[in-house]
Design a protein that fits this description.
The protein is an all-alpha fold and 118 residues long. It has helices spanning 2-22, 29-36, 40-45, 51-63, 67-84, 90-99. The longest helix has 21 residues, at 2-22.
């Protein structure tokens, strides 16, 4: 009986520890930047938008299914935008989803408040 009590206590503790992890965003910054990797030249130099770039924007939209995922994707995009600094053309970045005919619920911008993304 004592062994069963210890086992059930251990299971409950594991569930409590794992619960916050389960609610974390499933999308990673590596996945976000990987999806948008083919957009780099367009976003920094202009020209035409590669087909792979628009495919990546669509892939990003399909990966970010939950509010937490969209907020995480927004944060990842912000980090990438900050890393590019002045090389990033903010206007092209903001217009990218529309140019690819993909509707996302937040603007691609370093200034977006990702906490308000739904």
């Amino acid at each position: 009986m004592e062994g069963l009590l210890k086992l059930s206590t251990l299971v409950i503790v594991c569930m409590l520890v794992a619960a916050p992890m389960a609610s974390e965003a499933a999308i990673s910054c590596g996945a976000v930047t990987g999806s948008l990797g083919q957009c780099y030249n367009y976003l920094t130099r202009g020209g035409f938008i590669p087909r792979g770039c628009c495919s990546g924007v669509q892939r990003l939209k399909s990966m970010a299914r939950t509010t937490r995922d969209r907020q995480q994707a927004c944060r990842c995009i912000q980090g990438a935008a900050r890393a590019l600094g002045s090389r990033l053309n903010a206007g092209r970045a903001a217009r990218l989803p529309g140019a690819c005919r993909v509707r996302i619920s937040y603007p691609i911008s370093a200034r977006t408040n990702c906490n308000t993304v739904r």
